[in-house]
Each structure stands twice: as structure tokens, then as C-alpha cells.
Amino acid sequence: MRRLFPQPADDISVVECCTTARPRPADRPYVMLCMVASIDGSTVVDENSRALSSPTDQQMLLTLRTFADVIVVGAGTVRADRYGPPKVPGQRIAVVSRSGRFDFDSPLFTSGAALMILPVDAPLVPVPSVRAGVGEVDLAAAIRMLDAQVVQAEGGPSINGMLAAGDLLDEVNLTVSPRLAGGDGPRVTNGGAAVSHRMHLAQVCEADDGFLFTRYLRAR
Predict the structure, then answer these.
(1) Are 213 and 17 contacting, i.e. CB atoms less than 8 angstroms apart?
(2) Is the peptide bond before 6 cis (omega within 30 degrees of 0)?
(3) Is residue 17 exposed (0-12), middle (13-18) or buried (19+ Cβ within 10 Å)?
(4) Paired sense of beta strands 114-118 and 212-218, if any
(5) Is the pTM of this model over 0.90?
(6) Where are the domains of the chain?
(7) Quick one: residue 41, left, alpha or beta (phi over 0 = left, psi -120 to 50 = alpha)?
């Protein structure tokens, strides 16, 4: 892998590409987002992200996960991408759901490493939960309730839109897949309120297969 910016280097590891300081804000965990998108902006092909990804992109995702205490991900993404138990010891996966309807017999939940993020009026569930909002999840409030230093958000786009609307994204790790996806797939953020949060380009790395790995940090 090559680093193109800020300090060009011809041979760096995925770990080097992923490593940076992630200081916790005073009132909530540090939140980083990891997503892949086509060069024309879609986050899905055939309703999931796998066709946009690559072995190096998957390695990036798994490496970034090692820096997080909690993974926050929407229920639809968990189903579509078939999430299993985390491989990082002690890590939790927080599944965001409005209804609380899920397969609690799946390996993700039977592992004991998962919890639900739900509205306060959602039905009772047989696993630990964090509840905020009525009718809809108040994700900003829920994030503040998590016992974590670093949270990694992994979509889907509606979850990302909620994080952007709440001005919660401290870091965005966006893989640009060298594919044209066409169609009307969602963008990296989707369905949230319109925002204009300035981000600072911190790094660009390139893999041999043409994938670009960018990191943007909150402009302070």
C-alpha cells in the first residue's frame, strides 16, 4: 500500500494507515465512521456493500475495528452483511433498531457481545439495551450513554445520516471503490437532516488494485 498524502511513502502497512490519535471528547465517545462507496457515490450493489469491497478494504475495516470499544451498526446492515460475533476481545456490537424485532438466536447475540439501541417505547428484548428517543431512536443521546472511549459506526446510510445530523462524526474513513455502480443506491449518509460540517483531509492511501483509502477528521 502507498501513502499519497500527507507524507508520501511507497510501502506502508494497513495498521500504519489506520493508526492515529483518537482523543475522547468530554461528553461522549470519539466516533469514527467506516464506509465504502463507488466513485459515483453509491454504497451498495445488489442491496449490500460486498460487491464494492476488496480484500484490502476488508482488512482496513477489521483493523479499524481493533481501535474501537463498541461497533454501532443498523439492524438492516447486520442482516444484509451477516454480522457475527466480534473478534476483538471485550468489544461490543450495538445494533440500532426502531422495532426491536431481530433474530436473537443468531451467533451475534448468543455470543453475549451484542446489545440493542432502541427507542424507550420499543418492546422488551432478551439482550442488554440502551434506550433513547420515543418512536425513533435518539442516536445522539444513545451514543452518550455508551461505556466506550472509541465507537466505530459502520452504517447503514440512515444511521450515518443520524450521526451527521447530530454532529457526532469525529473521523470518516471512506474507501473509494474503483467501480461505477449506477442505480439509485444510497449515499454514505441518507435520510438525515441537511448539514454542512467541515471536515479536514488527513490521509490518502492507495492499494495496488486502485482502491483509495481516505481519512477525514472533524475540522476544529
Answers:
(1) yes
(2) yes
(3) buried
(4) unpaired
(5) yes
(6) 28-218
(7) left
DSSP of 98-163: SS----TTSHHHHTT-EEEEE-TTSPP-SS-EEE-SSSS--HHHHHHHS--SEEEE---HHHHHHH
Residue type at 154 in one-letter notation: E
For residues 212 and 174, give the distance between their C-alpha atoms in angstroms, rounded to a whole number. 8
pLDDT in tens, 124-149: 999 999 999 999 999 999 999 999 99
Cell of residue 5, nine digits: 498524502
Query: What is the CB-side half-sphere exposure of residue 78 using CA atoms within 13 A?
Result: 26
Q: How far apart are CA 152 and CA 77, in angstroms?
A: 14
Q: Does domain 28-218 have CATH number 3.40.430.10?
A: yes
> Which strands make up the sheet holding 2-5, listed edge to edge?
2-5, 199-206, 212-218, 171-177, 30-38, 150-153, 70-74, 92-96, 114-118, 129-131
Q: How far apart, in Å, do the first and last CA atoms of the chain sit? A: 29
Q: Which is more confidently placed, 78 or 44?
A: 78
The answer to whether the CB of 136 falls within 8 A of the CB of 21 is: no
